[in-house]
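#struct-pred

JT: dropping the chains for the assembly here, can someone run the whole complex?
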Amino acid sequence: MPIQSLSDLQAAFDAGQWHLQRFQKNAGTAHALQWADPTFASGQPAYDAHVGTPMVFTPCVAQKNDAIYFPGIQPGQHRHLTSATFWSNQGTYNGAGSIVIFDLLGYYPLIDGDSTDLQEADNTLTLPRYTDGEGVGLVIVNHVAPALQGGQAIIAYTDSKGVAQSITVGVPNNGQNLVCSGVRNSTATDVGPLTVSLANGTTGVRSIDSIQYTTPPGGLHCAYLVKPLATCLTGDSLVAVEKEFFSRNAVHCPRIHDGAWLGWFDRIGSGTSRSVSWFGNFVFAWN
Amino acid sequence: MAIQSVDSLISAISAGQTARYDWNKITGASAYTLGRWYDTSMLAGLPIANAWAGTALNWRTCDEATGNGTQIFGIPHGGNVSANIKHLLNMSAWSTAATGVPGTLMLVDLQGYWPGISNNTTSAQTLVGTPSLRYANGDGCRLYWVQTAAAGATAQNIALSYTDQGSTAGNTLPVTVAMTASGIAGHISHAGVAANNYGPFLPLASGDTGVQNVASVTFSAANTGTGALCLARPLAQITLSVVGLMTEKDLLNQIPSLPQVKDGACLVWLYGAGAATAASTTFAGSIEVVHG
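RK: done, full complex below.
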């Protein structure tokens, strides 16, 4: 029976129905104020470049060590993330950071940033979780080959209501392995948002149908479809910070579905770019 | 059944009765001024910009599903849930620019607005239409003027005739309220640090706790520019306190606790600048709701 009360949650821990999963990611691309995905760094979970066949939707269903590991549960049970702890050994971190924990539902890899041709997506496979796409965000990340300039793209997509939509949006050149989600419909540099600004009335993304660059940024990009689950903050230099979701997230311990591909984006508050190693753990409980 | 205990809240969460949405907004080509308040609905980003659709001086209702009927500009919150009750559960926000902090973001439920009101007349401008509000009698609903086209350099004061929450018509502002000369588009023009500035909301007459209608708007001097008079219910605030760092707010354990989000609520952020905020500054974040 799912957790439906504080007593249920406590009982789950009493019954040993919890798991602490350590993670450690080595330093990746230096960044400051941009959002970064530590997936593109070695460690535990393993490095993952998010490659595949260009523009073919690649669903993500976590197995073994390819994302934050959590144990399987019995049918009818619910699994929840009850806390997350982050710290870095960066001694000159110079500013606390922000974290968004997400479930990566899948991605469209290797989008050619040197082409102005229409790049049509293959959606033979569909979202493995949150299947209607409600609340699912689109995140653009420059991967594999670096961009050369700020770009602009026309992105055609199907929203969570099943309606075809199109948006012209910037693809800023924020750096390799960093988030390049545009706010404006121009080539201007936008480093702040995690998800791409979408069309009138969109409340989620079910699939991308095509991307066409009107100003090609160069390099290769990957379009993630993510379900953000929670936020937390990191401490300053050499400070570990734990967020316990029951008491500090309005008792909302995010539900973690079977196969969830758990990762996080980080945004270092310092104005000076840092290459950051991450350590910490996620705690799960289920009933 | 309404959420009436921590256990029922957990049960609602466990049943998947939550929704979470990201938002982002980027300021325009003009810098924001310390101490002033600004409407973010008309900024580009996610959701799209509010272009203040409607007929001049005529009330335009706003809601989640249709926005103002043209632009769906409110931050989504998952649709109607009646007979359940929906609550704000968590919020986060951050700014990209050092000059984006310190600042305050106030989340309001925009009931609607009267667009196309001219700054350029001293005649009383009669407002048309009777607002249909999500709050009975407008209790808790407040007024603010958004400059939708930049104002000219002439100083002017604003006066209103409004109907309060008790259905008493003909109420006026209790003090002199100065608009800002040369206020930029998006500025809540009466909010600032100058003499006779009040913000983000227009002051109400003694004893009044809300507004249900406005009959007319009158300016003391003619100035160029156009604006919209907005009627909104404030729900919650979140501060932007540290450069580059996200702020989180847990609305169970922090006050106001679990603010209700009505069916159809059109959620909009108002930004109070605690510093001179550079042009093209991005604000972003998320909201999370639960219903039960």
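JT: nice. The mean pLDDT of chain B is 96. The longest helix of chain B spans residues 6-14.
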